[in-house]
Design brief:
- The chain is an alpha/beta fold.
- The protein has three domains: about 10-75, no CATH class; about 85-295, Rossmann fold (3-Layer(aba) Sandwich), CATH 3.40.50.150; about 295-435, Tetratricopeptide repeat domain (Serine Threonine Protein Phosphatase 5, Tetratricopeptide repeat), CATH 1.25.40.10.
- Helices cover about 45% and strands about 10% of the residues.
- It has 18 helices and twelve strands.
- The chain has helices at about 10-20, 30-45, 50-60, 65-75, 85-100, 120-135, 150-160, 175-180, 190-195, 235-245, 340-345, 370-380, 385-400, 405-415, 420-430, 435-450, 455-470, 485-490; strands at about 110-115, 140-150, 160-165, 180, 190, 200, 220-225, 250-255, 270-275, 275-280, 330-335, 365.
- The strands form three sheets. It has a seven-stranded mixed β-sheet with strand order 6-2-1-7-8-10-9, sandwiched between helices.
- Strand 7 (about 220-225), helix 10 (about 235-245) and strand 8 form a beta-alpha-beta unit.
- Helix 12 (about 370-380) packs antiparallel against helix 13 (about 385-400), helix 14 packs antiparallel against helix 15 and helix 15 (about 420-430) runs antiparallel to helix 16.
- The longest helix is centred in the N-terminal third of the chain and has 18 residues, at about 85-100.
- It starts with 7 loop residues before the first helix and ends in a 6-residue tail after the last helix.
- Residues about 285-365 have low confidence and may be disordered.
- The structure holds S-adenosylmethionine.
- S-adenosylmethionine (SAM) binds near residues 117, 123, 151 and 226.
Length: about 500
């Protein structure tokens, strides 16, 4: 490759572009790292000169694979087992016991944890070891540790679970002996019981793909994101913290590294100190429901869906059923008005779901279904879930046969912890459109969370079959920017042997 100087102005523009793409920010003193990284990425990807590579990246033509390679050259992959001893002490002595206590007496003992920016896996496996050490009978619990990173190369290494001595620099010998098996090549393999608690998946923290039932990033008890946000620009960092806050169950914990504590300034999070270690706890805001106790929560009557089957023709995903096309703005009446309620009933075709909308009395809204759904999404993004659910039910009333509205409602219900109602809404979406791939994926995750592994596999396999007939670079509607190829990767990681 010819050696080319990159003009200052261009590298500044590229820096801003990278920040919007990956969150990463290279301040002036680290500019040379950006130049080195992009130069070696260009080389790796077979470009003759770095300038044309920079323009190519900024034209947004990069495939997922190329993006992975660029990311590999720009990110730092330093990590090891039980990094930050004091933090793991706080987890083992305070945080995990508190969560265990809060689940006492429940039939389903379930824990959901997320290691975001997990690198080569040492962090999520350390968490799994910590849970195994603290929980009295780990086999009675369903412990799901989601481990995500943007770098597919790191994830592949993590899935292998083979580590060299350097990764054990902070792990006491007795733990190494208990949880690892020495291989033939001086490396050590993580034990099967620990490995099966962790699911690895690619996720770019800048994307709007969380919290979402598609990425299984909702209702987390603990989120660890350490030594990641320190490399981010201010704006994407604040957005990530806001999304983490939404991904946490009320009372859930956000853990950053000691030098990143300032980034957790968020109205929904309060700092809690355990012997010099500060972690952040989500306050109970919009809804009061116990973390991970969702299965036990009965949905209030006004939120219940009647899952009567719909006597209609169904189209494949992507093509809306004909009766949904060419929709016109409608007037939706608030249920507080008796006359309006009667009128709405009269319009309801036989067998359609009876979804009641709880909204303030004496107001009439003249919005079409798309605008109502848009309002619902905006409220959900702002964490106002009750309001989001109300708007969404109105969107459903305005357009009863659109599967996307049921899918949206299911996401909101899931964020609220109303899992059974969320499942019903997803089934309704699939009834309206059996090719609605997002609903299959969401059902796959939920049923897996309930330990129904056969059902889960069936949903993931249906999703994979549908996805295989699509173009991998296409963005899936209603997915907040997820491409078909990315979802294929996600779904494959859920199917053993794929
Ligand atoms: C220094 S490592 C931290 C590993 C581990 N959390 C720890 O503290 O030991 C930073 C990780 O963040 C990941 N990362 C950087 N930007 C990311 C992004 N936009 N989305 C997801 N992961 C990202 C990198 O790939 C890398 O694995």
């Amino acid at each position: 490759m010819t050696r080319t100087e990159i003009p200052d102005q261009l590298i500044s523009t590229f820096n801003e572009f990278i920040s919007s793409l990956l969150g990463l920010h290279f301040p002036h003193k680290r500019r040379q790292e950006l130049v080195r990284g992009v130069t070696s990425a260009a080389q790796d990807l077979g470009f003759n000169d770095v300038l044309s590579f920079i323009y190519f990246v900024m034209s947004k033509e990069l495939s997922q694979e190329q993006l992975g390679i660029l990311t590999h050259h720009l990110t730092i992959g330093e990590t090891y087992f039980f990094r930050d001893k004091k933090l793991f002490q706080a987890l083992e002595n305070h945080i995990i016991p508190q969560i265990v206590m809060s689940r006492r007496g429940r039939t389903r003992q379930h824990l959901r944890v997320w290691s975001a920016g997990c690198c080569t896996g040492e962090e999520p496996y350390s968490l799994a070891i910590a849970f195994d050490r603290v929980i009295p009978a780990p086999k009675d619990w369903r412990i799901n540790i989601l481990a995500t990173d943007i770098n597919e190369g790191f994830l592949q290494k993590a899935r292998q679970g083979m580590y060299s001595e350097w990764s054990f620099r902070a792990l006491p010998d007795h733990l190494k002996q208990k949880y690892f098996r020495q291989g033939d090549d001086c490396r050590f393999e993580i034990s099967h019981d620990i490995r099966k608690m962790v699911t690895f998946s690619r996720l770019n923290l800048v994307d709007r793909t969380y919290p979402s039932p598609l990425t299984d990033t909702e209702r987390m008890d603990v989120i660890l994101c350490r030594n990641v946000l320190m490399y981010f620009a201010e704006e994407p960092r604040a957005q990530v913290v806001n999304r983490f806050c939404r991904s946490l169950a009320p009372g859930g914990w956000l853990v950053l590294s000691p030098s990143e504590g300032d980034f957790a300034r968020h109205s929904g999070l309060v700092p809690v100190n355990f012997s010099g270690v500060t972690v952040f706890r989500k306050t109970v805001q919009d809804q009061t429901y116990p973390a991970c106790a969702s299965a036990a929560v009965r949905l209030p009557d006004h939120l219940q869906l009647q899952t009567t089957q719909l006597p209609i023709n169904i189209n494949r995903y992507g093509e809306m059923p004909d009766h949904v096309k060419g929709r016109r703005p409608q007037t939706v009446s608030r249920p507080g008005k008796e006359a309006d309620r009667e009128a709405a009933k009269a319009k309801k075709p036989v067998g359609l779901p009876d979804i009641q909308v709880a909204l303030p009395k004496d107001q009439t809204v003249s919005l079409d279904a798309d605008s109502l759904a848009c309002q619902a999404r905006e409220c959900a993004d702002a964490g106002r879930l009750t309001e989001a659910g109300d708007w969404c039910r109105k969107a459903i009333q305005a357009e009863k046969l659109n599967p996307a509205n049921y899918y949206l409602l299911s996401s909101i219900l899931q964020e609220q912890g109303f899992m059974e109602a969320s499942i019903k809404a997803l089934k309704q979406a699939i009834y309206l459109d059996p090719g609605f791939v997002l609903a299959h994926v969401a059902l796959g995750h939920i049923t897996r969370g309930f330990g129904k592994l056969d059902d889960s596999l069936r949903h993931f396999q249906s999703a994979l079959t549908l996805l295989k007939s699509m173009n991998s670079e296409d963005v899936l509607p209603y997915s907040d920017g997820l491409t078909v190829g990315h979802l294929v990767d996600l779904v494959r990681s859920m199917i053993p042997g794929e």
